[in-house]
Specification:
alpha/beta, four-stranded mixed β-sheet, 6 helices, globular
């Protein structure tokens, strides 16, 4: 859903946590929302970061954007500890091109309660873009 008539002149983009329950489905949701009318689909964390720079998809480079993440609590649970553990374990099993030692360290941190979940990583990626504000709903 895209709404360009909000009061603060930012383009509003809505990610709906009710539309997905896995990282792969999150990528489908953001591809539909951020990349509609293009052939390119998000499929990695780096790819998600890349589209947030704008310039292709629904907003321009450095355009002021507000992302509203609806049902974010559901997403926090869906993309929490268990999903993150599976994500890291799959990367370790795959090996190259992934840095298995780095991923093992991230998994170890997660298991000790110190690491980021996938949800945390996605929030950090969004917040790293100064032209994007994020509202968790």
């Amino acid at each position: 859903m895209l709404n360009t008539s909000n009061n603060n002149k930012r383009k509003m983009i809505v990610i709906n946590g009710g539309h997905f329950s896995s990282l792969a489905e999150f990528y489908e949701e953001v591809s539909d929302v951020l990349m509609k009318d293009t052939d390119w689909k998000v499929g990695t964390l780096d790819g998600f970061d890349d589209i947030l720079y704008g310039g292709f998809g629904v907003f321009d480079n450095n355009e002021e954007v507000e992302i509203v993440w609806k049902e974010s609590q559901k997403s926090k649970e869906d993309l929490g500890f268990k999903a993150t553990q599976e994500f890291y374990e799959n990367k370790i099993r795959q090996g190259k091109p992934f840095n298995r030692e780095l991923i093992q360290q991230k998994l170890n941190d997660l298991m000790k309660g110190k690491g980021q979940t996938l949800f945390d990583v996605l929030i950090e990626i969004i917040q790293s873009h100064s032209n994007i504000s994020l509202t968790l709903d």
